[in-house]
Structure prediction request, 397 residues.
Amino acid sequence: MLSILRGTQRSFQVALWFLALAVFLLVGFLHVDFRLLIPDKVQEPPVTNIMFLKTHKTASSTILNILYRFSESHNLTTALPEGSRVHLGYPWLFVTRYVEGLKQDNRLQHHFNIMCNHLRFNYPEVQKVMPNDTFYFSILRNPVFQLESSFIYYKDYAPAFQKAKSLDEFLADPWKYYNASVSLRNVYAKNNMWFDFGFDNNAPADMDYVHKCLAEVEQRFHLVLIADYFDESMVLLRRRLRWQLDDIVSFKLNVRSQSTVSHLTPESQERVQHWCALDWQLYQHFNRTFWTQLHAELSPRQLTEELEQLRERQRELTALCLQDPEPKNLTHIDDRNLRPYQSGKANILGYNLRHGLGTTTLHICQRMAMPELQHMAHMYSLQFPNKTPKDIPLMKK
Prediction:
């Protein structure tokens, strides 16, 4: 009887061993990624030293909001514009005196964790502000859509745009309106993203020059995202920064109403590629590298699952925070602190929060919906409580 029991026990142990082996082999065969089974379990500490080159009309205001929120929630320091400035010296090349807290410090021993306001990239000067282990990233957009957005947003600001009735008209004969020597305000009218990276936006698109500049960007930046694939960009950014899901969930900020969006003719779209040839080369190159990096990091199944996780969480927070998931016209936004700055012919939209939100929920929702200028002023007051607050007219009652 005892020998029978022992035999049964051994058989049971052998069966368990084979079952475990079968599960192990099945998992390997199916390529199960256990990080997806516990999607918010981060194995390593999050990246906290970050420089984001905020390009123009590329969904960069939404990323700035993400970085501001992360900085505040993790008690980090942010390199903010000095005094009454709202940018870090743009459109001039960045120098350290544009940062609050560094103007009187000749030794520049103080470093910040995050740098994300508009500036024209100047690597030697940025290095003086940011730690050696800083993660550098930026974002680009298809130049056709980037220039269309710039034309509407800077219609009354850029001399090159002021007299053209439409972007189609401008592109039909751009040199009729554009003069590179007139004003730095015209940087928005030609190769604006190239200019943001610190290069000459009026340089000929000579391929030796282009390749040299592209190699420099690759050397300086760890990642260049693509605004046309914003969700995919956030999935890859989250992995690179080792952040939690809620850290990169966002509401779209600084978006226009569809009534102010122009649909360019096919001829105009082709003309953009020639007029903004440097931007086009920049975009084409880093669009390729973006997808190469994304596919090297995630399988198609992983990408699909992580995109769905991101979008589901966005839907949850939208339902939790907002009266209406669709952004509203300025005149329909109740809270002045949530009314976005208006520029040119663009109709910039914003959000109304739901009433009756609890203190913690209200704190989260307010910061997700807060427009760029108000958010910058808020961060400035937190970081420099003894200095005169930023004067943001939209916040005045």
Remarks:
- The first strand starts at residue 50 and ends at 53.
